[in-house]
Task: structure prediction
Amino acid sequence: MSITTEFKEFVSRGNVVDLAVGVIIGGAFGSITSSLVQDIIMPPVGMILSGINFSDIVTTLKAAGPDGKGAVVVSWGKFIQSIINFLIIAAAMFAVVKGINSMRRHQEEAAPAPPAEPSDEVKLLTEIRDALRKP
Result:
């Protein structure tokens, strides 16, 4: 089997295509969430906290040189925004998974139950009947 044939089989499997679609949608969802946090949630939070812009919250470890280069800063505000992004994405994924699980549970409850196994007495009577039928 050639490499191209194996590759075509690999790509044409449903799981690979589903994974690719999931990654693309996940990336788009991540950018939407980043915009939600940076452009909608953080400005009012900053206003409530005396006009703080979280992306400007930094700790300077080394000041910039005379040419304006070489500054070393720790961007705490961007880290806080990333944490909020993560929490929103995690909450959204939790809601999706919870909804899917609820739907599955509802479908399982609606499905007919398998027939119950006969009791021991019924099994014994069946064996006696079968034994009496034998010539």
